[in-house]
Amino acid sequence: MTELEFSELISKLWASALWGNKDYLVQKIIDANEIAKIINELENLLYGTDPFNERFDRFLREIKGLGPATITEILCLYDPNKYGIWNDKARKALKILDFEGLPLGKYKISGKEYIKINDALLEMARYLKRLGIKDADLLAVDYFLYEVWFTEKEKLEQEEETLEVLEEKEFDHDEIRDFIKDIGNWLGFEIDTEKYVAPGARVDCVWMARIANLGMVTYVFEVHKSGSIDSLILNLQKALNNPTVQKIIAVSDAKRIEKIRNEVKGLPENFRKSLTFWDVGDVIKTHERLSEVIKSINKLELVKSRFEE
Known about the structure:
The chain is α/β, with parallel strands linked by helices. Helix content is about 55%, strand content about 15%.
């Protein structure tokens, strides 16, 4: 595979559909990993001799910027009779269909978990064939799961809105981090994840922008699901040592946010003024609604990739 072929592949994936500027996305992935490494890891994923689950884990570990949705879509395009797609819509559809024993609450899955999920998707393909859809493969299963999700979408949203405000919600840390990354990108910020913004301060996501009279401004996001609140606060305090950081945002559910608020009450005023909070429920809603806006704008083809016909 050449760099051009890799770029064309990424540009045409459903997982990349919401990126208006596909060339920017491709270049960011290449810059983060180097094309030789990406191609080597892709070849190992597809053709390697180690157990598949180990090759899957290795690719996720070694290549930055390509998550499970992208990897499994590449696998499905490589062999739609063997590999299924694991993305947000498929996960929600499987929940609707009451599949049990699968990691339906997880965004970032392991190779062993993907094998378990894929077995369920293969069974669905066999079921569709028994219903008379002779050519049903795992791409057809993905279309089916999308339709399941779409028909139940409004009902799911209504159920989520009835949850108690202070309920401690289950969410996937990496998924929320990547939602924040997507939102920042759609809003026109330069974005990065797992970035050191100051000595000892590695944060989940940053949004950066150059403003004429201010220079570079940076907004720091830390997603808190578990672990020590003191460690979270210390990391955010260290992040403020970077003079470009204008705001530090702690992201969690309402119950955990309330705990963080109580912990910072006695801290210096400049820290408290720099700190703000974002509920994961609002992050999810913002991501869903903004993605619909981006889909609509992308239909205008204001920015066309060199790989698009």
